[in-house]
Design brief:
Two copies of one chain form a homodimer.
Chain A: E1 22-25, H1 27-33, H2 41-53, E2 58-59, E3 62-63, H3 76-82, E4 93-94, H4 98-106, E5 111-117, H5 120-127, H6 133-147, E6 151-157, H7 170-182, E7 187-192, H8 199-206, E8 215-219, H9 226-235, E9 240-243, H10 263-273, H11 281-295, H12 302-308
Parallel strand pairs in A: 1-2, 1-9, 3-4, 4-5, 5-6, 6-7, 7-8, 8-9
Helix pairs in contact in A: 2-11, 7-8, 8-9, 11-12
Organism (chains A, B): Amycolatopsis albispora
Protein name (chains A, B): Hydroxymethylglutaryl-CoA lyase
GO molecular function (chains A, B): hydroxymethylglutaryl-CoA lyase activity; metal ion binding
């Protein structure tokens, strides 16, 4: 007999948490971008359609990064052309630079995200830019996107640790994040790209911003800390959480490690706490089980493992 | 490059948490009892010695349950006879009944644990007793153990959900737990045997007891919730946490599911929060990697997966 069949988890709210959380589903972009397998566009389209059917309202669909860097998402145009958009669901896309914005605009998107670094080393490696210079690169992109009426989200990566530099000063993260917000990003997603954060850090970094309404958190589960960190962020008033169906997306810096926080593990937490989110756990588990078959590897999500059997 | 090599996790304390946590390591008992493989006694002895060498100070060593029910621990006498006890380390054993206590006393143990149920169905299935009657069974065992100068811990299982009954009323858990404390147990370990709990439940159940000093928490990671629940308990002043090196111990009610909270995942959290615990993470990871080889299956611990490579 499974826990779901006997009505578990029990719903018991806790003090000081938001009533509703928006799940920003990144499986199709951040997840598939970091999977070894290149997934056919038809499978991606079915994946997105199933996720929408499961009640998720924000599905980051793909990235307009150069195919040379991320061959897994080289089919971005084809994907967006084939996408059957559902009422009430948004399909943001990642845009790394001006050329990416051209492609996104040509594809008719209405919501984009840019991807900045909180550290020098990752800015250099990922953007071939300094920490400071990257903003000069993003500014005209954001300006033009806003002028075209797009919604722009800012990702900030390596907010809680950097694989080359180690600890990252909170002030540095906050200063970088503020520049993205000042540029006109409607939301800043604080990324723990290598999954090392713990809740004290979350409190320090999130607490450095004036308003938790403008923040989202993006935790990777490499060291099993993603959900605890999410809980810490929720306690501080953050109400948008990034996650990936089935925990898709290995960590590119550690071959064997797990990737994004699994949407199903997050949903179990939210269900137990009686926090509204709009998604159906069983439909998500079915979707991730199906996707795991497509990828030929089991889902690292604890919930999917427990309920799929 | 690994996170540990660049000094991560960063140590950032959070408000309202204990300064020090006692890790009650259950890998050799609760872990191995639920693994399919029967591990040779020499391997168990090396496992316990390595865990003590890694700085853990409480190692639940084995169980005096009838070998017919748990053949994995049929070597309890042999194990205790071969154990090289280290200074400052305690080696409690599980004692299910009067016969088990006889065996434990004959083996010269100084610390035992009894295992009660918070629900009718599990009391019936595990002890062939009613929820109420089980205390009558435990009373003479505890009385005699205390008279013999032993330390007695009380486990209470199914505190946050039962696979047959579903949700378990907090009042029922608190009432059952109080009976174990009133009997003379120095500590009560609240068990989420099937891993379904979420933090609101933890607050409600833990908050039902007068003093968090007398409590320990015992979470299973079946649905990925164990560490978030631990964090919720730490915030309420609980400072003893049960965990299992490498996350040993599948859940007996779900073949594919993961078992106990992994000690390594807990230690990452505590390290990041600057909470003292005395254990060395790298030594634990080496131990669990070695143990996984003995068992012929990879550790489900996120930290072990990420750092073992």
């Amino acid at each position: 007999m499974g826990a779901r069949e006997v009505g578990l988890p029990d719903r018991v709210p806790a003090e000081g948490l938001p009533e509703r959380v928006t799940i920003w589903e990144v499986g199709a972009r951040d997840g598939l971008q970091n999977e070894k397998a290149v997934v056919p566009v038809e499978v991606k389209l079915e994946f997105l359609d199933r996720l929408a059917g499961a009640g998720l309202s924000v599905l980051e669909a793909t990235s307009f990064v150069h195919p040379k860097w991320v061959p897994q998402l080289a089919d971005a145009e084809q994907l967006l052309a084939g996408l059957e958009r559902r009422e009430g669901v948004s399909y943001p896309v990642l845009v790394p630079n001006a050329r990416g914005l051209d492609r996104a605009l040509a594809a008719g998107v209405s919501s984009i995200a840019i991807f900045a670094s909180a550290t020098e080393t990752f800015a250099k490696r990922n953007l071939n830019s300094s920490l400071d210079e990257q903003f000069g690169m993003f500014e005209p992109v954001v300006e033009r996107a806003l002028a075209e009426g797009l919604q722009v989200r800012g990702y900030l990566s390596m907010c809680f640790g950097d694989p080359w530099e180690g600890p990252v000063p909170a002030e540095q993260v906050v200063a970088a994040g503020r520049r993205l917000l000042d540029m006109g990003c409607f939301q800043l997603s604080l990324g723990d790209t290598i999954g090392v954060a713990t809740p004290g850090q979350v409190e320090r970094v999130v607490g450095g911003f004036a308003s938790p309404d403008q923040l989202a958190v993006h935790f990777h589960d490499t060291y099993g800390q993603a959900l605890s960190n999410t809980l810490a962020a929720l306690r501080l008033g953050v109400s948008t959480v990034d996650s990936s169906a089935g925990g898709l997306g290995g960590c590119p810096y550690a071959e064997s490690a797990t990737g994004n926080l699994a949407t199903e593990d997050l949903v179990w937490l939210l269900d137990g706490l009686g926090i509204e989110h709009g998604a159906d756990l069983d439909a998500l588990v079915r979707t991730s089980t199906w996707m795991a078959e497509q990828l030929g590897r089991p889902s690292p999500s604890r919930v999917v493992k427990a309920l799929a059997g």
